[in-house]
């Protein structure tokens, strides 16, 4: 009898709960009106971009290099690779990115990474779900690129780990922040040449012995915020391969592309 009484009451309460949520959201919107996450122009919804800022993002879509994720001028069929991938194959299987590291996207990444704009997380996660669509069905682990503990203490959060933890429940792929470690502090990559970047991060990552079993034969999605020259994700992928990873695919919010990078490195090989 108790179940027969409580079930209808629970059902009747649903409209009231929804109405209450709408009221709370309306009050919240009055206290903090929705604005564009880039330029602060008033909007009707939270965690969104205005039309001009959206137009300032160069999203990466097909056709693209199957290995490096570089946009290609035209398509020649499935599995095509760029000259850069053919000349210097990366130690990972495939890379995919949301968009080119320029314009609005470059500003958003900087705000998230260096100015602690955590409200950008939802927007980035929506985009990463789409960009990483080729990976989710077969993936076993999401592994964010780690920070050294000194840099983590200074910045207070690892932006890649924040995104990975949000992606885990949405994809059904567990995020593991402890299976890959940065074993030594490295200099900032900004301003370094391609070879200097490679030397800077060579041997800087490792899978701890007590985590090797989780990585062995696993299909890993290696997550980072920006792929610049490829040095960091290549060093991470090498460490994961050494530990026995079966597949390593790289996913990032932004990718530096030669000639379309707002004056970034201009190097011919992406990170």
Sequence-ordered SSE layout with sheet pairings:
Layout: H1 2-31, H2 51-55, H3 83-87, E1 94-100, H4 103-114, H5 121-131, H6 133-136, E2 141-144, H7 149-155, H8 159-171, E3 181-182, H9 194-201, E4 205-206, H10 212-215, E5 219-227, H11 231-242, E6 247-255
Parallel strand pairs: 1-6, 2-5, 5-6
Antiparallel strand pairs: 3-4
What is the compact description of this entry?
The protein is 41% helix and 12% strand. The protein has 271 residues and is an alpha/beta fold.
Structural commentary:
There is one protein chain. With 271 residues, this protein is of the alpha/beta class. It has one domain (58-255): Rossmann fold. It contains 11 helices and 6 strands. The strands form 2 sheets. A 4-stranded parallel β-sheet has the order 1-6-5-2, sandwiched between helices. The chain has a two-stranded antiparallel sheet with strand order 3-4. Helix 5 (121-131) packs across helix 8 (159-171).
| Intertermini distance | 64 Å
Structural class: alpha/beta
Strand order of the largest sheet: 1-6-5-2
Strand segment tally: 6
Please tell me the overall pLDDT: 83
The number of distinct structural domains comes to 1
């Amino acid at each position: 009898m108790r179940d027969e009484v409580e079930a209808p009451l629970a059902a009747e309460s649903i409209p009231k709960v929804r109405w209450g949520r709408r009221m709370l959201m309306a009050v919240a919107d009055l206290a903090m009106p929705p604005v564009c996450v880039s330029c602060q122009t008033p909007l009707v919804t939270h965690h969104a971009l205005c039309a001009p800022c959206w137009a300032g993002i160069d999203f990466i879509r097909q056709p693209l290099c199957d290995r490096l994720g570089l946009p290609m001028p035209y398509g020649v069929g499935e599995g095509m690779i760029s000259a850069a991938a053919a000349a210097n194959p990366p130690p990972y299987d495939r890379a995919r990115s949301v968009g080119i590291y320029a314009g609005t996207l470059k500003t958003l990444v900087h705000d998230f990474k260096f100015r602690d704009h955590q409200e950008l997380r939802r927007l980035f996660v929506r985009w990463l779900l789409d960009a990483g669509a080729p990976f989710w069905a077969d993936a076993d682990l999401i592994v964010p690129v780690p920070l050294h503990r000194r840099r983590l203490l200074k910045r207070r959060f690892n932006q890649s780990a924040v995104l990975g933890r949000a992606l885990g429940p949405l994809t059904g792929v567990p995020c593991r922040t402890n299976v890959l470690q940065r074993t030594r502090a490295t200099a900032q990559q900004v301003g370094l040449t391609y070879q200097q970047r490679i030397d800077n991060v060579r041997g800087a990552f490792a899978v701890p012995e007590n985590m090797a079993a989780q990585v062995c034969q696993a299909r890993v999605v290696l997550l980072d915020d920006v792929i610049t020259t490829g040095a960091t994700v290549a060093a991470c992928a090498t460490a994961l391969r050494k530990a026995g990873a079966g597949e390593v695919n790289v996913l990032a919010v932004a990718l530096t592309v030669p000639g379309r990078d707002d004056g970034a490195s201009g190097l011919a090989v992406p990170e």
